[in-house]
Write a structure and sequence with these properties.
Elements: E1 8-13, E2 16-21, H1 22-26, H2 42-57, E3 64-67, H3 74-82, E4 87-91, H4 95-107, E5 113-116, H5 120-125, E6 134-139, H6 149-154, E7 156-166, H7 169-172, H8 177-184, H9 194-212, E8 216-225, E9 228-236, E10 245-250, E11 257-260, E12 275-281, H10 288-297, H11 306-317, E13 325-326, H12 327-334, H13 341-350, E14 355-357, E15 364-367, H14 371-380
Parallel strand pairs: 3-4, 3-6, 4-5, 6-7
Antiparallel strand pairs: 1-2, 7-9, 8-9, 10-11, 10-12, 13-15, 14-15
Helix pairs in contact: 2-3, 2-10, 10-11
């Protein structure tokens, strides 16, 4: 590869200069060759920078990022350039990608970044012993990250952060149930809040692998946008004693849903058959203090303005119960127009229910009211 070739150009993302393929910028669908780069995933990377900054700000220990599936290393390069970190190691099997990453590292005069050309699990196994592990391990594959959970956890130090991306949305959203069960150990239910079910399936699978290794995971932040789901968890080297695996029970007849430790056959409201998604993570998916720390960090970086808006929604829902409703879903049950989102939340709160917006959907809200109570409240305020 000749990096002086006219098919490449230099761009700036955040505060970091990058060498990318011109077609990645001009084509509607970025090409996979010579190296895949998606400019639309900047929001994803911006939120990673904020999350990693918030984590490192409060982490006592060596500050090391291991990026197992780096591609051209954009995330790792930005971490090395924009955050206070001792060492970043980016790994990929594509030598062209690594050469581009090295070129970008030189553009930014970085001396805290190293490069590795290896299979991801072989790479991470080199850092799986005490004293060599990463304080942050980042896994961003095409498709499912489940195959890398084991080696990812082993390479994360006690109190460190493991971040993973999933792009196999059709599997996680219920189009291929057998594949979902095979990869994540559970099944989903087709529902309006399918992205939350998907993220809880990912966390549930991660929790099962961690438990087998005698390790605990604590979700800090999760994200759903476009074509990907992303999770950030703290890893603690101690067994998890909590009951945080269970099911989401969803009735396709009346729309009632709730989280439970065990499967049930009948809807408690309409008494018809109920569907169960899981086993999956049923605990909190946002850690309130961590989200507040992320909000505090947003002013330090050149990032999308929407990041702050997303994080404030996450903060509002951080201690809410699992699953959310959408205005369209309620409107179809009411057979009339629903209130505006801010009014919907306000009406519920005035009727002594807990309610908040959600970062998972622009028309979504969380509440401890059941679907009948929501409909009654909205009808009463028409």
């Amino acid at each position: 590869m000749d990096i002086s070739d006219e098919s490449f150009q230099e761009i700036v993302e955040g505060e970091t200069s990058l060498l990318v393929s011109k077609k990645s910028i001009t084509d509607k669908v970025p090409p996979k060759k010579p190296v895949f780069f998606n400019p639309k995933a900047k929001l994803n990377r911006d939120l990673s920078i904020v999350a990693y900054s918030a984590f490192l700000e409060n982490f006592q220990g060596p500050k090391i990022l291991l990026e197992g599936l780096s591609g051209m290393g954009v995330r790792g390069l930005r971490v090395a350039n924009e955050l206070k970190i001792e060492k970043v190691v980016v790994n990929d099997l594509n030598p062209t990608a690594l050469k581009m990453a090295e070129y970008s590292a030189n553009l930014n005069h970085l001396d805290n970044i190293k490069f590795s050309e290896n299979d991801v699990c072989r790479f991470l196994s080199n850092y799986s012993k005490k004293g060599k592990r990463g304080s942050i391990v980042d896994l961003d594959p095409f498709g499912s990250p489940a195959a890398f959970f084991d080696c990812g956890i082993r390479a994360t130090m006690h109190g460190g952060m493991l971040s993973t991306t999933a792009t196999d949305l059709q599997v996680l959203n219920g189009l291929f149930q057998e594949a979902c069960k095979r990869k994540y150990g559970g099944i989903t239910v087709r529902a309006e809040y399918g992205n939350e079910i998907a993220i809880r399936l990912i966390l549930g699978c991660l929790r099962i692998v961690a438990a087998r290794l005698g390790v605990e995971i604590i979700p800090q932040f999760v994200e759903s946008d476009m074509h990907y789901y992303r999770t950030y968890v703290k890893v603690l080297n101690k067994p998890d004693q909590k009951e945080n695996l269970g099911y989401i029970l969803h009735c396709k007849n009346c729309g009632n849903r709730r989280i439970a430790l065990e499967k049930e056959k009948e809807c408690e409201m309409c008494k018809l058959k109920i569907n169960a998604a899981g086993p999956l993570w049923i605990g909190n998916i946002f850690e309130k203090k961590f989200i507040q720390s992320m909000i505090d960090e947003t002013t330090k970086f050149k990032i999308e303005k929407v990041c702050d808006k997303i994080l404030h929604k996450c903060l509002a829902e951080s201690e809410m119960s699992g699953t959310y409703f959408t205005l369209d879903e309620i409107a179809s049950k009411m057979k009339s127009s629903p209130p505006k989102l801010e009014n919907a939340v306000s009406f519920l709160q005035k009727n002594n229910f807990v309610a908040s917006v959600t970062a998972f959907s622009p028309t979504g809200f969380r509440t401890n009211a059941n679907i009948n109570e929501i409909i009654e409240t909205f009808h009463a305020n028409q």
